Inverse folding.
């Protein structure tokens, strides 16, 4: 008898007792799931936008993949229903930002919402000096997390400690600036664009640039142009979603789950028996042995996709330990 791997703890069947006849199980099979690419407006938190979208579209679940500051605008990825179960696979993608920095003024929050803590009118960098300073900030570097950030230190949000005047050592992270370009410059304002890794704070990058120039700087305007392969050209405004909520046309903006994870390797399955076992969180040992060799050790997860392009599961062919997740099943 072939050995079967039961992984029901990670499948959707576990949350409903594994009984497809239950009404809530059937609802989950038919509910829309995928990725929405939104254009976040200014003056709204990322969480507030997700809450409004969830109510507007009547979604059971929704969550964003990477926060934008309230004063910032641009691409915000929102996972809908089943897609919330792979949100962590989208947060690590590179981001592209265009922003306006104001030279000669530093604020406590490193952006225009903060209190001015230092001014400098004596140093007016030339365009050549600015270009050279920008180039110095490309590549891998260790960046200090801004004191007004949502990162937790000692169990408390860093910005809450800062507001209370509690001085703590902010954490430092390794980030990578893939490119950093000067778009235009007319003192005291400079428009810049950067493509950067997960965890990069544009506010801190701007402050570091200002200190390098000797005049200080803060961010005046910030717009995220892209997150991974998803750019503003695919983004929907809250107004457009509102227009499409009544007739269901918003569904045309929903990126299918398999496409949302296009950066992951894929394995297409048209074997009905294998798909039937996957429905219950099971994998055949012979099947795993046959297909795991197609992927290098350390690769994972792999998209298991049906012949018609639907995401059936995420599979980790080479787990780092016996306790690591092996399979995450999605309802078809």
């Amino acid at each position: 008898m072939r050995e079967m791997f039961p992984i029901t703890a990670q499948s959707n069947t576990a949350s409903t007792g594994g009984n497809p006849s239950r009404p809530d199980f059937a609802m989950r099979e038919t509910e829309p799931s995928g990725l929405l690419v939104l254009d976040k407006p200014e003056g709204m938190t990322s969480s507030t936008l997700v809450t409004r979208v969830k109510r507007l579209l009547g979604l059971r679940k929704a969550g964003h993949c990477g926060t934008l500051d309230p004063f910032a605008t641009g691409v915000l990825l929102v996972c809908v229903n089943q897609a919330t179960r792979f949100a962590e696979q989208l947060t690590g993608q590179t981001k592209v930002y265009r922003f306006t920095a104001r030279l000669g003024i530093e604020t406590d929050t490193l952006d225009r919402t903060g209190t001015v803590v230092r001014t400098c009118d004596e140093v007016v960098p030339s365009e050549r000096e600015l270009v050279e300073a920008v180039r110095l900030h490309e590549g891998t570097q260790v960046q200090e997390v801004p004191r007004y950030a949502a990162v937790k230190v000692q169990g408390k949000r860093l910005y809450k400690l800062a507001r209370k005047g509690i001085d703590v050592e902010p954490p430092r992270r390794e980030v990578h600036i893939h490119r950093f370009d000067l778009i235009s410059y007319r003192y005291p304002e400079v428009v810049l664009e950067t493509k950067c890794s997960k965890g990069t704070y544009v506010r801190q990058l701007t402050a570091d640039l200002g200190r390098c120039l000797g005049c200080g700087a803060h961010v005046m305007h910030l717009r995220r142009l892209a997150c991974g392969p998803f750019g503003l050209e695919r983004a929907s405004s809250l107004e457009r979603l509102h227009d499409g909520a009544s007739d269901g046309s918003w569904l045309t903006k929903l990126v299918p789950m398999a496409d949302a994870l296009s950066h992951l390797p894929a394995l297409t399955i048209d074997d009905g028996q294998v798909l039937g076992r996957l429905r219950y969180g099971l994998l055949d040992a012979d099947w795993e042995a046959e297909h795991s060799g197609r992927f290098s050790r350390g690769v994972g997860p792999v998209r298991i996709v049906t012949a018609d392009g639907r995401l059936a599961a995420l599979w980790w062919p080479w787990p780092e330990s016996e306790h690591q997740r092996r399979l995450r099943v999605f309802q078809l």
Observations:
- Residues 1-27 have pLDDT under 50 and may be disordered.
- The chain has ten helices and 19 strands.
